[in-house]
């Protein structure tokens, strides 16, 4: 019965929130010129993965130039009417956190056939399966789109908070029963709240965007923590479910643009991993709890640290769960990203060894409310 309840709560929650309608088809060149007068720069339509990465990285570079004031005032686009060789276009670019820039550019016409030819060459080169090359400038622009410049107050607060909760899981995850259930409820509710907020975020963000994300996520996270303390019979399985959730995201993060590139398949994989780990709580409770708390702690610590050191790891999480049609997310991997993923494994193994030695071998302790029997002296 408990597992059935978990299935009802866990899988539909992710599925219903994350899966969004597919973007509409790209307008032709003439229509784009008219559309830009009213709407922000449009993201490329996702069709071929390799071409998507190249186009989206180019889009990031254009946005970075527009937002930092380094934009080129002459832009070249392909138009079918060669009688109109140039025109002035006003475009609106959202630079994050409520900052919107309106720019005026001179658009120069080029032959449509040239554009089609270059598009064909790009598509054919992409079909060969070569990895998208990203130089230092491309990587810097990619990180700018993810984190902005420097570390914001919201990033610092979120990063520190994630690392503190992670340290708790790494050290005290098994030894503290109700504390671990409360921390699990907080993380689960906060993450699900964030997914709901990011997928329903308006075009130019919420009023006081960063404050909204932090306050709403933390507020509902505290509700989850309070709730899980009292429904421990069900909350116990969410420890494994949350670990399976993070393990699935971790596995998907080992490949550029994710290991599983079909959205529905990704959601099924994540939900399935959560259910498998929840079932493992029944079969091997002590070992599963130790591994679950260790992995949750290891992954959350590196994810929080990533908001300071900017390795791009957070983009895997964004690419999976941010289905907002107004957002454009891609995930590429360089050496810093691989190092971050490797340290998740290192922290997990270190925490597992510590918790197993201290709680199982030394104290011979079980997970739960441990009641010690008092010895009564017989008369």
Automatic annotation (TrEMBL):
<protein>
    <recommendedName>
        <fullName>Transmembrane protein 198</fullName>
    </recommendedName>
</protein>
<keyword id="KW-1133">Transmembrane helix</keyword>
<feature type="signal peptide">
    <location>
        <begin position="1"/>
        <end position="16"/>
    </location>
</feature>
<feature type="transmembrane region" description="Helical">
    <location>
        <begin position="338"/>
        <end position="357"/>
    </location>
</feature>
<feature type="transmembrane region" description="Helical">
    <location>
        <begin position="260"/>
        <end position="284"/>
    </location>
</feature>
<dbReference type="InterPro" id="IPR040236">
    <property type="entry name" value="TMEM198"/>
</dbReference>
<dbReference type="Pfam" id="PF13886">
    <property type="entry name" value="TM7S3_TM198"/>
</dbReference>
<keyword id="KW-0472">Membrane</keyword>
<keyword id="KW-0812">Transmembrane</keyword>
<keyword id="KW-0732">Signal</keyword>
<feature type="transmembrane region" description="Helical">
    <location>
        <begin position="296"/>
        <end position="318"/>
    </location>
</feature>
<feature type="transmembrane region" description="Helical">
    <location>
        <begin position="179"/>
        <end position="199"/>
    </location>
</feature>
<feature type="transmembrane region" description="Helical">
    <location>
        <begin position="235"/>
        <end position="254"/>
    </location>
</feature>
<feature type="transmembrane region" description="Helical">
    <location>
        <begin position="211"/>
        <end position="230"/>
    </location>
</feature>
<feature type="transmembrane region" description="Helical">
    <location>
        <begin position="149"/>
        <end position="172"/>
    </location>
</feature>
<feature type="domain" description="TM7S3/TM198-like">
    <location>
        <begin position="159"/>
        <end position="356"/>
    </location>
</feature>
<comment type="similarity">
    <text>Belongs to the TMEM198 family.</text>
</comment>
<dbReference type="GO" id="GO:0005886">
    <property type="term" value="C:plasma membrane"/>
</dbReference>
<feature type="compositionally biased region" description="Low complexity">
    <location>
        <begin position="111"/>
        <end position="129"/>
    </location>
</feature>
<dbReference type="InterPro" id="IPR025256">
    <property type="entry name" value="TM7S3/TM198-like_dom"/>
</dbReference>
<feature type="region of interest" description="Disordered">
    <location>
        <begin position="111"/>
        <end position="132"/>
    </location>
</feature>
